Amino acid sequence: MDALSCSRHVITNPHEVKLAVPRPHHRHHRGLAYHHAKGERPGGAFLGCRGNGRGVVAPSVVKNQSQRDHGIDFSDPDWKPKFQRDFESRFNLPHLKDIFRDAVPIPSTFCLRMRTPTEDFADGYPSDEKWHGYINNSDRVLLKVIHYSSTTSAGAECIDPDCTWVEQWVHRAGPRAEIYFRPEEVKAAIVTCGGLCPGLNDVIRQIVITLEIYGVKEIVGIPFGYRGFSDEGLSEMPLSRKVVQNVHLSGGSLLGVSRGGPSITEIVDTMEKRGINMLFVLGGNGTHAGANAIHNECRKRRFKVAVVGVPKTIDNDILLMDKTFGFDTAVEEAQRAINSAYIEAHSAYHGIGVVKLMGRSSGFIAMHASLASGQIDICLIPEVPFHLHGPHGVLRHLKYLIETKGSAVVCVAEGAGQNFLEKTNAKDASGNIVLGDIGVHIQQEVGVCTFL
């Protein structure tokens, strides 16, 4: 990742579009790539600095909502080019030179052929001109690759009623030939916030190794999330390749995690005091909201800092990302629970097993675990509405399964069926709405269902 190139590089999750473009004149959307279409499939997303990041997340266009969300007048014959220009404008990514216009780039110190920079940069910054591994700032990737001919096509996502093909291009990910931070002047800090996620230590390890390849000498870990910026009893942890060499073999986080923390002003004050000019933040929604606020505060102070956000979600729900880290482990562990539920249900008279898995807004863990196990009869996910009662309801189908198979297993994502539960205004420490327990609700409904 080319954090040395830019003022802010955000690798974000789908509910945080405002992290991508913090400029006031831009319109922001929330949801899966930033207006969540039910059933939208994730790709992968990296929000990077303009021309210097790992890529960018772009908005998913929701069928029948474009006119409301984007203010498109389809009677205007020029609506298509206007939409494309608006798309480009909203995702004109921020860069260090937006604030420091006199910033002078230097040749990148990153080259996979060398793996490490020349010693002490004695003869200036190394540049392998024959190596063509850099990404051009003008490179783009096509966001949508399917040209739907009809709104009735399977999975169709259309901007207008005629399903017009509109090209939307996003920045290509990868290292650039020029950077804007001198590695020997960088003090990089890494912080992990929120809950635990499989693969956290592996991400920490790769960040440290990559920074050392660039030539960064001073790398530290901030202990226990944002709290480590304010708690005087928590000291920075020096990091190097030797320190992190084998951490990926262990679970949890080498740095520890926590939710919440000090104010943004305190965090930036501490960064200035400690001389941190590159911050890597690993976390979820609330964590990245904090990273965005840190970025904005640094801009306001004209504090030359790169804030890099790494999405910590095992839900695999980020557009453009092939697979989020930790997802495979989550699916594998979920199958263990499914297997146990199947054995118990299959061994009982008219047994019904209910397995609730993670997935607040998306059901990819539940869906993939169900398909992989081959033992799930009903899979319920947030993207697909369902009924419990009635001729086409879940309970009616369970009755059919009991009559034909003698047992059944239900897999449900935690965010599914929330419309059946009483809503509360309660939020957890990270600011997420506390969901009702759909697993218990289904269990209770099955218990009182007379025909089951």
Automatic annotation (TrEMBL):
GO biological process: fructose 6-phosphate metabolic process
Domain of life from the UniProt record: Eukaryota
The keyword Acetylation is annotated on this UniProt entry: no
GO molecular function: 6-phosphofructokinase activity; ATP binding; metal ion binding
Pfam families named in the record: PFK
GO annotations of cellular component type: cytoplasm
Coiled-coil region(s): none
Annotated keywords: Allosteric enzyme, ATP-binding, Glycolysis, Kinase, Magnesium, Metal-binding, Nucleotide-binding, Transferase
Domain Phosphofructokinase: 188-423
Record InterPro entries: ATP_PFK, PFKA, Phosphofructokinase_dom, PKF_sf
Keyword RNA-binding attributed: no
Cofactor: Mg(2+)
Reactions performed catalytically: beta-D-fructose 6-phosphate + ATP = beta-D-fructose 1,6-bisphosphate + ADP + H(+)
Protein task: Catalyzes the phosphorylation of D-fructose 6-phosphate to fructose 1,6-bisphosphate by ATP, the first committing step of glycolysis.
The name this protein goes by in its record: ATP-dependent 6-phosphofructokinase 5, chloroplastic isoform X2
Biological source species: Rhodamnia argentea
Encoding gene, per UniProt annotation: LOC115739369
